[in-house]
Write a structure and sequence with these properties.
alpha+beta
Length: 359
Amino acid sequence: MKKLSLLFYTVVFLKPVQISNRFYRKFVTVKPKFDRYLINNEKRPFVRFELTKSSIYDDTYFIFLNHKGKIGSWNDSHQNKLWLYNLHYFDDLNSKNAKSRDAIHNTLFHNWIENNPFMCGIGWEPYPLSIRIVNWIKYSLTLSKCDKDIYDSLYLQIHALSKKIEYHLLGNHLFANAKALVFAGCFFNGGESEAWFKLGLKIIEQQIPEQILEDGGNFELTPMYHNIILADMLDLYNLAQTYQRPELLQRQNKWKLIIEKMLYWSRTMSHPDGEVSFFNDSAIGIAACTDKLFEYASQLGIEENPQISNGCLIQLGYTYLNDSGYVVVESEKMKAILDVAKIGPDYIPGHTQIHLVLN
């Protein structure tokens, strides 16, 4: 009876698409598909901005989540699953001084391809697929063109992602899926690329008003994931400038206003040292810090807009982020950030931290 009650009070808050997609994922089989494709070279330079530090240590080890480990295998059972997720992201391709590690990266590309057969292992789950696809594309656009084996694998990875969109989770996972499809649809010509682009952009258009609140905050109410989504928005704005596709250019002004709000929220909610405040699953060293995001925005021609205040009550030394539910009080010597927010979206409470105060 207790299990039935728990199931009911879980399902009652979910959206219908989350339930239906869970059944769909049980029965769908993704088959490899090999189309003829071309790399789209009709573009302007993509602005390279290295938001994070390198995760490679001493050429043979990776450091994720304050834990140093070696690639025993890409699906090493001795490693924490979240650590392995980070391993499969390939974030180091776009981290500080990545160019100096070209030889290491080239070896890693081929190692991954050889040891991760189609749809086998953590690396083929939709979220690491999404992050890795964008990282491989950004690396190819800015640092080093890749060989055909890498592009063939990349195409196959995008095909797999397009069949496994995370509608059962929604939130930041769905946003990452859609961003990857938009990048893929611009990077490739031919095959499924146009379908990827249209699907990704459709999801982005649906999710921006859902996930980005009027005061600029992310609806999961976590400063760390806010900065991740902000970096995603900056990348999409960057992509629009690069490929000049009409569907992207007509959205640039709207995206710019949203980014300005998100920058304001990030600055307001950060600690005085520029790092994220520790609410709802937030930690240092995962997302880019606020100062780096402002630098990236500046490189794209987006500057801080002090007039951005929709959804906020701002008084001298006091800011109330109405939609997010955070209160910030600061003076020259102190800054207090108070959480008076709701738990989060009813259908995605996964990043919530609940603090009990006993009298």
